[in-house]
């Protein structure tokens, strides 16, 4: 019991002590996860829509693979990314191992299938009708893609939130490719894992509370804009 | 109206990235401080978790201008990183593995840095009667535990502590197997937590145990002080011939620095709650 209470006290202390190290850790977590989510969105949304609205041979197989990749364990992704980026690996000369860039790459590999899969699912369900309607109204390809993104925005929003949630909360991949280096690649989740291993539960709980608060705020902001947009549509 | 929504979300994303990048800018600055390059130090969790590295590394960075990136892993993994040339310098504690590393040509020489000791921990009621029978002899302690047999929690992670534990079992001519021998495969902190929950015996490094003593209410030291329980740490610069990306000069500078008289004094002056954690020099 005492740990849990201490955790809350410690959380307030951590936040209001304005310790630059804590802010830097939180900042790096957001930077890495937002960047990876953004890149994954740019790749995943158009691809997901494209696969979703078109009917082609082997679509079922593609979807099965896509859904499997959605549950890929972060540790394995971390391991593969590490093998590629390590000094002795094929991309070794770029010296990316144990850098924030490596963490962004690993999270991108993790999040892209999630965003793609969710968008694919929504596009498969309602994308075809949108395309037909667009064509009837004389839209060109670009118009149709814009129209699709707007019509599927609810699904895209869920994809984004899910992807970001997965990126900011995973510890396996960033621990392997980032190495939890103090002041350089230490993020919230690896900080929690390290402190837990040192038996400093209250600091772990405190950082956990900060992590949850940030996730809550991020999701609130995203939902605010998407919900707000829906209400505007009804005017 | 519809476009406004997507523009807002994109602005939000980009804004958040810029803001968070600004917030984590100390990291970028720190990297610039390493104007003479950087080295990757693969070391054990105990040197990081005890706080020693945070205490001594700023001195090295200010003296040489070389930034040190610390990757704290088990000794087995650290040695493996050295063999693959993923690290420039190693600070580890598993003498047999270290000597093999040098013998195999991955490093030219190993130097003693410091030592502390291991302790055998057990439940307060001591079902294997280790306290009364074993004295400071870890082999006798392990023999008594296996004879009952009483629960023993092993880290089983190829770490320095795990290597030492296996060496003691070997010295006692016992192959630990069965329900009483619990393998966690995790770090020292987690293993101590498991031992405390299961009220078993385990081998721990003194620094981590001192740090966690308050939360380990069910355990106490049942055997300590024997020569076998000494825990020496060694430093090795990875041979620059393994691949062309190893910072050989930086690694050598680190080795020269950590065995220098001033740094040795610095190591000896590091205390947690008033207790010295590491004794500099060679274990006697």
Automatic annotation (TrEMBL), chain A:
Topological type in the membrane: Multi-pass membrane protein
Record carries keyword Nuclease: no
Transmembrane segments annotated in the record for this chain: 22-53, 65-86, 98-121, 142-165, 205-225
Taxonomy, superkingdom: Bacteria
Stored PROSITE patterns: ABC_TM1
Gene3D superfamilies reported in the protein's UniProt record: MetI-like
Signal peptide extent: none
UniProt keyword list: Membrane, Transmembrane, Transmembrane helix, Transport
Record-annotated ABC transmembrane type-1 domain positions: 26-222
Similarity field: Belongs to the binding-protein-dependent transport system permease family.
NCBIfam families reported for this sequence: ABC_perm1 (NF038017)
Entry protein name: ABC transporter permease subunit
TrEMBL record, chain B:
Alphabetized Pfam families for the sequence: PBP_like_2
Domain annotation PBP: ranges: 33-261
Residues in the signal sequence: 1-23
Keywords: Signal
Highest rank taxon of the organism: Bacteria
Descriptive protein name: Extracellular solute-binding protein
Organism for this UniProt entry: Acetobacterium fimetarium
Lineage, opening ranks: Bacteria, Bacillati, Bacillota, Clostridia, Eubacteriales
